[in-house]
Amino acid sequence: MWGDDLQRAHEKALVKHCGNVPVFVTDYPEELKPFYARLNEDHKTVAGLDLLIPGVGELCGGTLREERYDILHQKLKSKNLLNTLSWYLELREFGSCPHGGFGMGFDRYLQFLLGMPSIKDVTAFPRWTGRCPL
């Protein structure tokens, strides 16, 4: 349904539907991403992406950051964050260049490369109930 975030089962089903190949999901609804995500021209979605891979689901996610002062000001005001995050807005007061970032799950990448069924098989220090060596 439009506006609902993807769950792990949805991610895996989407990859399977697309032929078990890596899939990019782009242009998420604005309400699902942080205030600093760059608003697209349709004013409903943001310039964000997730890379979904077979057997794992989301491998990495990223967004472009909102560099336009007026839109950033409006977003902070609508979320009642203007006073709390005024310092963030001041960073953009005299201009900003387009920029973005992403994060990748290294353990998930290893799980995919090695074909392991569980991420615990590739995690350096796995944890589970009843086992805490410290």
TrEMBL record:
Print the keywords alphabetically: Aminoacyl-tRNA synthetase, ATP-binding, Ligase, Nucleotide-binding, Protein biosynthesis
Instruction: List residues of the Aminoacyl-tRNA synthetase class II (D/K/N) domain.
Output: 6-128
Entry's Gene Ontology BP terms: asparaginyl-tRNA aminoacylation
Q: Which GO terms describe its molecular function?
A: asparagine-tRNA ligase activity; ATP binding
Q: Name one GO cellular component term.
A: mitochondrion
Q: Which Pfam families match?
A: tRNA-synt_2 (PF00152)
Protein name in UniProt: Aminoacyl-tRNA synthetase class II (D/K/N) domain-containing protein
Tell me the organism.
Magallana gigas (Pacific oyster)
